């Protein structure tokens, strides 16, 4: 079962307060996004709208999407008229997003749920203005390799991991890709990589010792800012 479809409310609450999201993923994403005042931002996989709210609070004009209707409802309740939130399947064309209508696309921990992300990358390129940025995070390829059966690093494959969402344990299934596939697919889709980050958590983060040890010494997520080529 898909835990995001089965327990969307639990996930929304955990994504809002989970220490990895609060002190590790969102600060890195926001740093790579930079100044968004007055900029048009498309957020892919917005869940309950926590990151959406931060982007809107920084002055962005946000269109956020998620495939789960109950998560979209939660995001709409949180955001009111501060952002537009729609139901959208990222494996289908984003027909309601006009060509060249977006300055920044943000995808926090969502792209690794797609077996084939090339069609979505093409959609993102279409939606972005020339020179516009795609900022995303995903599970680190080394972490994905360790979750696999380790028989073929070079393939894209489905792996699973057990997560504690505070109120319940779930098993998530996601796709791991080798580094060459990640960056090769970006290049083939018409992007140039502007920055790659493997950050540490915030210095003042309130983390328990075990989690702090993991986040400060092990590969967990990979963060990328890629720019749509102008040609």
From TrEMBL:
The lineage's top-level taxon is: Bacteria
Might you name a Gene Ontology BP term for this protein? methylation
tRNA-binding as a keyword of this entry, yes or no, is: no
- GO MF term (any one): S-adenosylmethionine-dependent methyltransferase activity
Protein name as annotated: SAM-dependent methyltransferase
- Is Methyltransferase there in the keyword field? yes
Give the matching Gene3D superfamilies. Answer: Vaccinia Virus protein VP39
User: What residue stretches are annotated with the Methyltransferase type domain?
Assistant: 42-136
Q: Which InterPro entries match?
A: Methyltransf_11 (IPR013216), SAM-dependent_MTases_sf (IPR029063)
Keywords, in A-Z order: Methyltransferase, Transferase
The UniProt entry, under Pfam families, shows: Methyltransf_11
């Amino acid at each position: 079962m898909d835990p995001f479809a089965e327990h969307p409310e639990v996930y929304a609450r955990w994504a809002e307060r989970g220490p990895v999201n609060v002190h590790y993923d969102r600060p890195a994403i926001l740093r790579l996004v930079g100044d968004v005042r007055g900029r048009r931002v498309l957020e892919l996989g917005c869940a309950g709208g926590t990151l959406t709210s931060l982007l809107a609070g920084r002055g962005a004009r946000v269109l956020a999407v998620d495939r789960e209707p109950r998560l979209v409802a939660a995001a709409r309740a949180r955001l009111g008229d501060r952002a537009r939130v729609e139901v959208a399947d990222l494996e289908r064309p984003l027909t309601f997003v006009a060509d060249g209508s977006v300055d920044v696309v943000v995808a926090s921990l969502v792209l690794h749920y797609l077996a084939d992300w090339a069609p979505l990358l093409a959609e993102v390129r279409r939606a972005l203005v020339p020179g516009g940025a795609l900022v995303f995070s995903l599970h680190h390829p080394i972490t994905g390799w360790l979750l696999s059966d380790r028989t073929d690093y070079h393939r894209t494959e489905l792996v699973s991991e057990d997560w504690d969402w505070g109120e319940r344990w779930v098993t998530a299934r996601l796709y791991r890709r080798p580094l060459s596939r990640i960056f090769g697919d970006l290049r083939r889709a018409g992007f140039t990589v502007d920055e790659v980050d493997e950050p540490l958590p915030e210095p003042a983060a309130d983390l328990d010792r075990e989690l702090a040890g993991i986040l400060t010494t092990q590969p967990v997520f990979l963060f990328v800012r890629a720019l749509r080529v102008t040609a």
